[in-house]
Each structure stands twice: as structure tokens, then as C-alpha cells.
Design brief:
Oligomer: homodimer
Strand content of chain A: 25-35%
Largest sheet of chain A: 5 strands, antiparallel
Distance between the termini of chain A: 58 Å
Helix content of chain A: 25-40%
Structural class of chain A: alpha+beta
Largest interface: A-B, 127 and 127 residues
Radius of gyration of chain A: 20 Å
Shape of chain A: globular
């Protein structure tokens, strides 16, 4: 591995500086992410994502919001304009596992040549439809297969697998998160 | 409310037919959604979403895959090419709450003129960075505010709020989902 301050596209000097800054001032670790969704028609709705708070301030680097659409396939009465919400959960989990492995591997000097993640989630529509109170609306189980390429030994491969414990979305899906929902008249 | 088979953009005849079909053959309620992610560089990765199984067969209605990118903002060592994974979780939850309310309201004859959902999630980076084993990597709490517009009374407004219990992503985030992760050499 060449001597460089960048591994896996992650700037190690900046990563170290971030860790040092958080150690010096724990309040810098507080983040709040946000999104805003508006319904369009049927299963079609649109989310905009822009501002967030983190590292002690409101972020000002995003000049334009990101726009993300959701729809359902025809079998779920939509028109396939976009993925559905359950598919976005799988996307978020896969993306988070990838990012978590890439960053933490970089911090440990493990250089990756590639990382592919396939993911699937099983659910029973009886839950969503309210037809059986014993069936949960969400996924009953999720399976992830990650294939990593690079010049690492078996010990490091096992280390890559263990790094997924730091994944925020793995934690969110695997463990309960308190969700407060307030519904009011517009 | 006019007599129509479509409420909130949801075809009630097809919704009833779906429910009747599931009642007649419970196996039709089995769905498996899927995604595939490949890492590009640093915090930048890309998910493709296309096939799924549901209603007794592999879906064949999507001719092209959906592509969804993820990145981090500069403060998290990315380049703002796309939302990050934690933001996609908020998006998925907001989109799912919207879709769930819209479909179930339609089934109950509650016509909506609009539905806006704002959502925020708080996390402490000590968890992701591995600096404090007592801090979870994911969101400590999520807050959702939904504003509904339409010609409904207060009783129906309360009913709209209760419909969120059918949301698959609310269940996934609020309750534990078993996640199996297999990491192998490419």
C-alpha cells in the first residue's frame, strides 16, 4: 500500500482531525438530519432534503435541495415512478453498511478495491393491510451479502465484517428507535 | 364526497380486489424487496433497485432499474453528491407514513386535499466513530410532524393519526428487525 493520507477515498488527516475535534468538544458530535415530504397522488410522494445541524452549526454547504420520489409498483396500486419506501430502507441500509466499512477500513489502513452489497427483505402484506394483528407491517427479516475485494488477509476480512457494528442504519433497523408522530390539521 | 371508485388517487376497486385475493390465498401476501449497492469512492456509493417478488410471482413491470446515489456532506468527508444514508431513512419513514395514511384513508372514504410531513432525527457521532460504547450509532429519537388537509372532522383526524400503525417503515424503525450480514471475499 502506498504511503498516502487518502485510503478508500477517505482523507485520513481530516478523519483524524474530526475525531480529535469530537474528543476535545463532545458537543460537536451532535447531529440532526431532516427531510420534508409532500404527497402528490396515491402512492406517489416527494421528499426534499437539504439542511442539517452538525459539528456545532447549521450546514450551509448545500445550495440546492435533493429531491427523492417514492411510488409503488402496479401490484401495489402505483405506477412505478420510483422505488417504494420499503425499498428505500434496503437502499439506506446497504449504503450505510458500505460507507461504514469504507471509512472504518480506511482508518485501519485496509485498502479496498471494491465493495458490492446485495440486500433483500421479506414481508407479509397481511400486516400493512391490517388483516392479521399478529403479522408485523415491516420486514420480518433482512439478509445482506457483502463482497469485498482488496489486498487484505483473512483476519482483516473478519475485521471488515465486524465494522458493520458501527453502522447507524444497521442500528436503526436492528434496534428500536423512539418515533414520535404528531398529526394535525394543515 | 362524490361517488367514485378513486379516493386520494387510490383505486378502491383494485384495493378491494387485492384484499379479497389475499384473504382467498394468504400466500399472495408474501413480498420480497431487493436492492444492490456498489461502492464508488469514499462516502459515495450507488444502489440499483428493480426486481421484487410479490403476489405470487416475480415482478416484470419495471423495464429499467431505479438508481439512487448516496454521499456525505463535506463535514462528514463527502462532497454532497447525494443525501446520506441516515437522511434516506428519514425519507423512507416520511414517505411510508404518507403512503400508509393515504391508502388507509382512501379505504375508509376519507378524502385528503394535502399531506405534508416533516421529520428530524438526532444522533451522536460518538457511536459511529466508536468513541463511546454507550452511545448508539443510529438515531436516538425521531420526530415527525404531519399536517393533513381535507374535509374531515376531528374524529377522522384522530383516525388518520392512528393509521400510522400500519406503516411498514414505522414498524421497521420502531421495532427490532433481524438483520443477517454475510461478508465474503469477492
Amino acid at each position: 500500500m502506498p504511503v498516502t493520507s487518502t485510503v478508500n477515498g477517505v482523507d485520513l488527516d481530516r478523519l483524524s482531525a474530526t475525531i480529535d475535534a469530537v474528543k476535545a468538544d463532545p458537543a460537536l458530535a451532535r447531529f440532526q438530519f431532516r427531510a420534508r415530504n409532500h404527497w402528490i397522488d396515491g402512492g406517489h410522494n416527494r421528499t426534499t432534503i437539504k439542511g442539517f445541524y452538525g459539528a456545532g452549526q447549521e450546514d450551509a454547504t448545500r445550495t440546492q435541495p435533493f429531491t427523492v420520489d417514492t411510488d409503488e409498483p402496479p401490484v401495489l396500486l402505483g405506477q412505478n415512478r420510483a422505488p417504494n419506501a420499503g425499498e428505500y430502507v434496503l437502499h439506506a441500509l446497504a449504503a450505510c453498511l458500505a460507507g461504514t466499512i469504507v471509512y472504518h477500513a480506511a482508518a485501519r489502513g485496509i485498502a479496498l478495491d471494491g465493495l458490492e452489497c446485495t440486500i433483500q427483505g421479506d414481508l407479509d402484506l397481511h400486516g400493512f393491510l391490517g388483516l392479521d394483528g399478529n403479522v408485523r407491517p415491516g420486514y420480518e427479516q433482512i439478509q445482506v451479502t457483502i463482497k469485498a475485494a482488496g489486498d487484505f488477509d483473512d483476519h482483516q476480512l473478519a475485521e471488515l465484517a465486524s465494522l458493520t457494528r458501527y453502522s447507524p442504519v444497521r442500528d436503526i433497523v436492528s434496534n428500536p428507535v423512539p418515533v414520535a408522530i404528531d398529526v394535525t390539521r394543515a
